[in-house]
Amino acid sequence: MHLHSEELVRDISAKAQAFRIQVLKMVYNVQSGHIGGAFSAAEIVASLYFHHLRVDPGNPAWPDRDRLLFSKGHACAMLYTALAYRGFFPVEELMTFRQLDSRLQGHPDRLKTPGVEISAGPLGHGIAVGVGMALALKMRGTKPSSSSAPSARASPARVYVVLGDGEINAGVIWEGALVASKYRLGNLAAILDYNGIQQTGATADVLPTEPIADKWQSFGWHVQEVHGHNVAEILNALDRADEVHARPSLIIARTTKGKGVSFMEYDHRWHGMPPNKEQYERALVELQEGLPAWEN
């Protein structure tokens, strides 16, 4: 596990908060989009793109890049923001979000947007697609089996999947989880944005999934739990996941839907509702007030 400086943690935390402000502006501008789940994933996405992932914005198709599959595709305003600030396309393009002829549609399109690895619309497919990618990367050097160790000739690339807790209601998630365990895919890690709220209410009411850690462990995954808005914990968990070589990893990130805006937090109505002018101005003030805590 690497040592992460206080300066790095503060920088990524500040980016996450600034990204919330950017997402708010994007959704308000077009009066369409998903704020709640984008805000809950801010620290996860910022930690991945601004420290952990091996990517090359100048060469998005670099064969040995790490792959990030944003399975909760409806929250893509946060993904687009991270990609833009990481250099995959101009930051100014973010304000074309969800507009006709834009590369930044309401769900990510692998063929349109630089840096997007999976076209996401129907929820639940991220793990299954991630298994296919991880298996293909592993097979570059050797034929995998339940007892084989990774080949020295296999690709160094890793596959990361960002999941929403509502989408794990889908059965295909668990099919993919079983296959990942069978092939001992140590090059696959999933991060579960566990904010407890989905489109129609609390996940505990819609379809309870607890004890969530026990379920994934019973499927053969290495499981960790972190505070999903604590960048230091996220970075440490990602490091630990990289050290697991014989099975896939899951990081359960306990987060808050609508994080950073008091009247949006824990409220399922903000899953996909754009703010009006008054709500936008209130939200913007709250997010801006939270930014100096992380700025040096």
Structural description of this entry:
The chain has helices at 6-30, 36-40, 42-52, 76-86, 126-139, 171-182, 203-206, 212-218, 231-242, 277-290; strands at residues 67-70, 159-164, 188-194, 197-198, 201-202, 222-227, 249-254. The chain is an alpha/beta fold and 296 residues long. The chain has a single domain (6-139, 157-290), classed as 3-Layer(aba) Sandwich (Rossmann fold). A hairpin with a 2-residue loop joins strand 4 and strand 5 (201-202). Helix 1 crosses helix 3 (42-52) and helix 3 (42-52) crosses helix 9.
Number of strands: 7
Structural class of the secondary structure composition? alpha/beta
* Helix-strand topology string: HHHEHHEHEEEHHEHEH
For the largest sheet, list the strands in their spatial order. Answer: 1-2-3-7-6
Largest sheet: 5 strands, parallel
Mean pLDDT: 93
State the end-to-end distance.
Answer: 26 Å
Number of helical runs?
10
Task: Give the name of the CATH architecture.
Answer: 3-Layer(aba) Sandwich
What is the C-level CATH assignment? Alpha Beta
How many domains make up the 3D coordinates?
1
Shape assignment: globular
Report the portion of residues in β strands: 5-15%
Uncertain segments: none
Task: Look up the CATH topology.
Answer: Rossmann fold
Determine the CATH superfamily. Answer: Thiamin diphosphate (ThDP)-binding fold, Pyr/PP domains
Could you estimate the helical fraction of the residues in percent? 25-40%
Q: Give the radius of gyration.
A: 18 Å
